Please model this.
Amino acid sequence: MWTRRSLLALLLLAGEAATTAAAAGVDSVDEENVPPPAHARGWKSDANAFAFSFFGTALPIAAGAYVGSREGESDLAPVLLPVAAGYVLGPSLGHVYAGNSRRALAGIGFRFATIGAVWIASESDKNDTEEGIATTATITVLAGMLGTISVLADIIDASKSAHRYNAAHGLTRLRLTPAPIGHAMAPGLRADLAF
Model:
């Protein structure tokens, strides 16, 4: 005799087969007509895009800060290299992962320009006067604020780049998870469709 669990499992399998067949646009399930899983078709995860941008920024900057705390002020090259890489390249890693190289290059270029503006201002011949020092300080603060905004915007928008990639390529993902149903909290399934 069929138990409730067996009937539920059979119903779920039949529903999954019908969903797969409907997604593939065929009337019956055939091994050749079943679409590959989303990850095989190039699905880009929002969480992965954010993680690439966040950790690609935070880890090099933290490593540079750690090296700087151990080295002292004797040599700044081992400190500045990872910090600059984390600042310039890190926030764009999520956009590269999501296939949005134009956004990644724009962010890299903008942050590189802020570093260039600070460098040019600090190397100016007018730094001997009070006015030159004030101008350099103003440029440094302004470039720092704009660069920080650029870093935060690229990190936050990385997941949107992945979402745009998936929408542009017609990629969707169906996720079934256990969920309580109704007031009695009966066991059931929740279907989430992500685009």
